[in-house]
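A.,

Following up on our hallway conversation. Structure tokens first:
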């Protein structure tokens, strides 16, 4: 069995399906910031209320990541992920039928339930199918679906989707299509791996196994870094379209400029894991981006519109570098049979930052009519992330047997 695991390679159909899942998860969330001005006008909302529409899926991730990871360790990653995909697709479709803020928020909760159920299982997919030493490379391919979905949600919602859809409900209906496609591909193409039987047996250790996971100090350290990263990332991505409009950019272009951060993430999440694999280290891909991102957030308060394109690209490269490195860490820290549970804890703790950040940003914007204070806060948070990265044990010394 050990030889079989060391020689395993992730099937192309599984890798492609997981990529499509990543795309389908994020595009329907990030179609919200570009139409934030429409939602506030038509539904009479505050900025804080609209921030909930792209924060609720993250909130549901926090609530469901741990049980989702435990269930995946028990029933298998295909079934666990597939269930989440069906729920997410239903929620995405229902958002297109919303007639008021309450119904839209309720349907977003359903979408978020599926979203939160899926996310912790993607690293589990990679750890189950891929060789341990190549896991971060395959994770990079899966992760590339995230920025592509996010970028398209930001960039084409107003100039392309909205003229076709006519209403915000129509926008949500069109963006539900990727979730339906991803769910269909997953159930058709992905086969449960043979070694899942071993995982089911070992996962029956129950409480003792869970105690082993939560006693891992490295897991809590990287979870804290993910918390800080998500605070920064979701605040930046969620509010930069508004920041651009406040600088005088029209709504049709604000989302496009903001999406520059996301477009550059696509090659980054593919190349950085390969570079990390070649060098055999991961820490520099955490502390260096954190320092750069701190200065970038501070500079965003005064940078000109023409220079904003370059700033967005810079931020995108280093957000993606830090994120793809963090997301691969539970695979190396934990035993394979515990990756699902560990990833659930890691994401549940980490994505609390992704909920708090946009909400605080919206509250500050409502109070001060400015995002300057939010940008200063995330600059300080990024420096704190750099400090924690210095304290982490290098991955080539942990989780390797």
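Then the amino acids I'd put at each of the 401 positions:
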């Amino acid at each position: 069995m050990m030889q079989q695991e060391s020689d395993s390679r992730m099937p192309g159909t599984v890798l492609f399906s997981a990529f499509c899942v990543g795309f389908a998860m994020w595009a329907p969330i990030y179609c919200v910031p570009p139409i934030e001005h429409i939602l506030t006008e038509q539904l009479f909302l505050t900025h804080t209320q609209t921030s909930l529409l792209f924060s609720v899926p993250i909130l549901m991730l926090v609530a469901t990541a741990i049980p989702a990871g435990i269930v995946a360790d028990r029933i298998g990653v295909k079934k666990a992920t597939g269930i989440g995909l069906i729920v997410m697709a239903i929620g995405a479709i229902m958002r297109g039928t919303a007639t008021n803020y309450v119904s839209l928020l309720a349907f977003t909760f359903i979408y978020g339930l599926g979203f939160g159920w899926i996310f912790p299982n993607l690293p589990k997919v990679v750890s189950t199918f891929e060789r341990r030493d190549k896991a971060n490379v395959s994770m990079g391919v899966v992760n590339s679906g995230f920025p592509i979905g996010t970028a398209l949600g930001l960039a084409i919602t107003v100039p392309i989707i909205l003229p076709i859809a006519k209403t915000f409900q129509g926008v949500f209906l069109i963006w539900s299509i990727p979730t339906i496609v991803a769910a269909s591909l997953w159930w058709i193409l992905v086969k449960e791996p043979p070694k899942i039987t071993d995982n089911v047996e070992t996962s029956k250790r129950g409480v003792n196994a869970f105690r082993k996971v939560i006693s891992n100090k490295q897991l809590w350290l990287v979870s804290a870094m993910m918390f800080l990263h998500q605070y920064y990332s979701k605040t930046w991505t969620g509010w930069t379209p508004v920041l651009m409009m406040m600088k005088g950019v029209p709504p049709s272009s604000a989302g496009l400029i903001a999406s520059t951060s996301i477009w550059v993430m696509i090659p980054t999440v593919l190349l950085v894991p390969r570079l990390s694999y070649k060098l055999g280290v991961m820490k520099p891909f955490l502390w260096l981006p954190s320092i750069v991102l701190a200065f970038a957030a501070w500079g965003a308060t005064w940078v000109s519109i023409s220079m904003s394109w370059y700033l967005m690209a810079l931020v995108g490269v280093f957000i993606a570098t830090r994120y793809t490195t963090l997301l691969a860490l539970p695979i190396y820290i934990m035993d394979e049979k515990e990756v699902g549970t560990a990833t659930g804890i890691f994401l549940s703790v980490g994505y609390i930052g992704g909920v708090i950040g946009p909400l605080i940003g919206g509250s500050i914007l409502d109070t001060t009519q400015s995002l300057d204070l939010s940008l200063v806060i995330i600059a300080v948070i990024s420096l704190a992330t750099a400090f924690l990265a210095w304290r982490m044990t290098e991955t080539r010394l942990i989780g390797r047997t």
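The chain has one domain: 12-191+206-395. Curious whether your intuition agrees with the design.

B.
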